[in-house]
Design goal:
This protein is an all-alpha fold. It has one domain (3-263). It is built from eight helices and no strands. It has helices at residues 10-40, 48-98, 105-128, 135-149, 156-181, 189-206, 214-239, 251-260. The chain starts with 9 loop residues before the first helix and ends with a helix. The model has no long low-confidence stretch (mean pLDDT 88).
Length: 264
């Protein structure tokens, strides 16, 4: 996978995809058209209907493939967004639980959660957008777990509160693991290979049309593969939900830090 594309601004990335698809299409038409007309001779204008039917069927199958992949990528984007929101919500619930602990445990635990949230926003998220997973986040969570589990309740109410806090921590840790996993997970490489090979075969078939005016052929084929290139660009932009420009932001954590944690 060409991960460097996620470092390019969105408008430039879309332009590059369009240029590549239209450029390859134009080159294919120019290279194939004249030898094809010489080879077919007087029959060159009579087989467009056959090629048209073949291209129509092929593009239908290729279009269905791209549509299914695009829907899947968009659904995965929404799922990861939901995971991020759930993690922030669980972190907020855990923060509320430990805010009811007696001192000095309350100050210690709430402070660690506040610093973890700030770490995710300021240092973690920029690394996630580059495809990196900083180990400091895991270290902070582990240290908080040690502090939480070392607390010894002295009353019945503290036992209930402590049990709920441990439960909330386990839920938070599970959701966090799912979110971390999505930093480096995307479409399988073999799927991208099929998309690329399918595009090349489709461009080749489009080049087999025979028109008297080469400019007309270039315009028609260019329009078709310009839009197809934009669809492939859309899939690539959504493929890794936590990477690049089209990625999920840390707004859920920012809101948590700004509204809930700033009040304590």
């Amino acid at each position: 996978m060409f991960f460097w594309i996620y470092d390019i601004p969105l408008w430039l990335l879309g332009t590059l995809f369009t240029i590549v698809f239209v450029g390859v299409t134009s080159l294919s038409v120019i290279v194939i058209q004249r030898p094809l007309r010489r080879w077919m001779g007087p029959f060159a204008d009579n087989y467009n209907e056959i090629i048209g039917n073949l291209v129509s069927g092929y593009m239908s199958l290729y279009g269905i493939l791209l549509a299914l992949i695009a829907v899947g990528a968009y659904q995965n984007l929404n799922d990861v967004d939901s995971t991020v929101s759930s993690e922030a919500s669980n972190l907020g619930a855990l923060y509320r639980d430990v805010s009811s602990y007696p001192e000095p445990a309350r100050t210690q635990l709430t402070g660690e959660l506040r610093e973890y949230c700030r770490f995710v926003i300021e240092r973690g998220w920029p690394q996630y957008q580059k495809g990196n997973i900083p180990q400091e986040g895991t270290t902070r969570v582990t240290e908080f777990q040690k502090e939480l589990f070392s607390f010894e309740p002295k009353t019945k109410s503290e036992e209930i509160l402590h049990a709920e806090a441990i439960h909330q921590f386990n839920v938070f840790a599970e959701v966090r693991r799912r979110r971390i996993h999505n930093v480096t997970s995307g479409l399988p490489p073999i799927l991208w290979q099929v998309v690329g090979i399918g595009a090349l075969l489709g461009i080749l078939m489009t080049s087999f049309f025979s028109f008297e005016k080469l400019s007309f052929h270039l315009v028609v084929a260019g329009i078709l593969w310009c839009f197809t290139g934009l669809v492939v660009f859309l899939i690539a932009a959504m493929d890794y939900p936590l990477r690049g420009t089209v990625s999920i932001s840390s707004e859920s954590f920012q809101y948590l830090l700004r509204v809930l944690m700033a009040q304590n």
